[in-house]
Design brief:
The protein has 292 residues and is an alpha+beta fold. The chain has two domains: 113 residues, 2-Layer Sandwich (D-amino Acid Aminotransferase, Chain A, domain 1), CATH 3.30.470; 158 residues, Alpha-Beta Barrel (D-amino Acid Aminotransferase, Chain A, domain 2). 26% of the residues lie in helices and 30% in strands. The chain contains seven helices and 15 strands. The strands form two sheets. Strands 7, 8, 9, 10, 11, 12, 13, 14 and 15 form a nine-stranded mixed sheet that branches. The chain has a six-stranded antiparallel sheet with strand order 2-1-6-5-3-4. The longest helix has 15 residues.
Length: 292
């Protein structure tokens, strides 16, 4: 399947208050956001013309910017309206939505108080993150050598571009070995998440266990799925989880805007069989996001 480069597409992008032709929406190569990773973003999905939990994503974008000492020069209402405008302009009812803000070119140094904060919104079609057949079998995860930094060493609770550098390295390494993705550990060796999705386990005690989001983003999909599970009467335990506990796992799945709910069939040498829990939560989540 050929891939259309993202710099050579038809359509439009909202940038700094203007709707511009897709190919003409540019920033300079000498940009603080490019050179120093001072960029924050949101990944969102629209289903049947409505962005799932849109305002929560917009609020998180503003919070991420604040953590990076950036002030977005738009109100949350303006961003909300711009996202909906772009769905209409692009004539997409089921799509991926990316809103992002970054520092401009006024200063190129570590210090960047006087840079302009740019903001853009792009929407495009995006099917399932993983091949549908592979998804039903359960995807395969490696275990990465790259680890999540502690909260004292990086802005781990912001959705910030720089935090994804190790994710790219980790996923490239996993894909070269034949895996779909990889499990990342925290700096102290605890299970954290995949490269772009949170992780859940059903243990032999019948309960659902998921790592505490101390070194990674507490995903909007993660929180949604926890609520769905608890509504089903299932006990969800958020706690520190060690690798050796994978022996006690009966089912495993990932959650995220792109991943939605994706069953996991293997983590390194540990194998699981996606079962009734995975199937149920996949259906429940699909129905929820399409019901609003």
């Amino acid at each position: 399947m050929s891939i259309i480069p993202f710099d050579d597409r038809d359509g439009y992008i909202w940038m700094n208050g203007e709707v511009l032709p897709w190919r003409d929406t540019k920033t300079h190569v000498i940009s603080h956001g490019l050179h120093y990773a001072s960029l924050v973003f949101e990944g969102e999905r629209a289903y049947n013309g409505k962005i799932f939990k849109s305002l929560e994503h917009t609020n998180r974008l503003f919070n991420s910017a604040s953590i990076l000492d950036m002030t977005i020069p738009w109100t949350s209402n303006e961003i909300e309206e711009a996202k909906l405008e772009m769905l209409k302009v692009m004539k997409l009812s089921n799509s991926y939505v990316r809103a992002f803000s970054w520092r401009g070119s006024e200063m190129i140094a570590v210090s960047a108080q006087n840079t302009k904060i740019h903001t853009a919104i792009a929407v495009w079609e995006w099917p399932s993150m993983f091949d549908p057949e592979a998804k039903m079998r359960g995807i395969k995860l490696d275990i990465s050598k790259w680890r999540r930094p502690p909260a004292e060493c990086a802005p781990v609770h912001a959705k910030a571009a720089g935090l994804y550098m190790i994710c790219t390295l980790a996923k490239h390494e996993a894909e070269k070995k034949g895996f779909d993705d990889t499990l990342m550990l925290s700096h102290d060796g605890l299970i954290a998440e995949a490269t772009g999705a949170n992780i859940f386990f059903r243990m032999s005690d019948g309960n659902i266990h998921t790592p505490l989001p101390n070194t990674f983003l507490n995903g909007i999909t993660r929180k949604t799925v926890i609520e769905l599970l608890r509504n089903e009467g299932l006990k969800v335990i958020e706690r520190d989880i060690n690798l050796d506990e994978l022996d006690n796992v009966t089912e495993c799945f990932l959650t995220g805007t792109a991943a939605e709910v994706t069953p996991v069939g293997k983590i390194s040498n540990f194998e699981f069989q996606p079962g009734n829990l995975c199937k149920k939560i996949m259906v429940d989540y699909s129905e929820l996001v399409r019901s609003r």
